[in-house]
Specification:
84 residues, alpha+beta, 31% helix, 2 domains
């Protein structure tokens, strides 16, 4: 019993020392951009939300996650499947 209380106390000290981030999930504060291919129109687009792959005509054109929209658009223009 004493040992479990001691471990619990130690975890609480770690939680307080880390500013409350030790047990919480980290929030995504940076923007993420993805390249998505629409197979019906054979065109690519850049989206800022995680693409849903449960629709049959939408596929992720690249596994990469880009930090800026400009990086994603440059990479989209380089992909052969996204050329118009």
């Amino acid at each position: 019993m004493k040992r479990s209380l001691l471990c619990f106390g130690f975890l609480m000290v770690l939680e307080i020392a880390s500013g409350g981030r030790a047990l919480a999930q980290s929030a995504r504060t940076t923007a993420s951009f993805y390249i998505v291919l629409n197979s019906l129109t054979n065109s690519c687009s850049v989206v800022d939300k995680t693409p849903r792959t449960d629709t049959p005509n939408i596929t992720v054109a690249s596994d990469a996650i880009y930090k800026t929209r400009a990086e994603a658009e440059t990479a989209m223009n380089m992909r052969p499947s996204c050329k118009r």
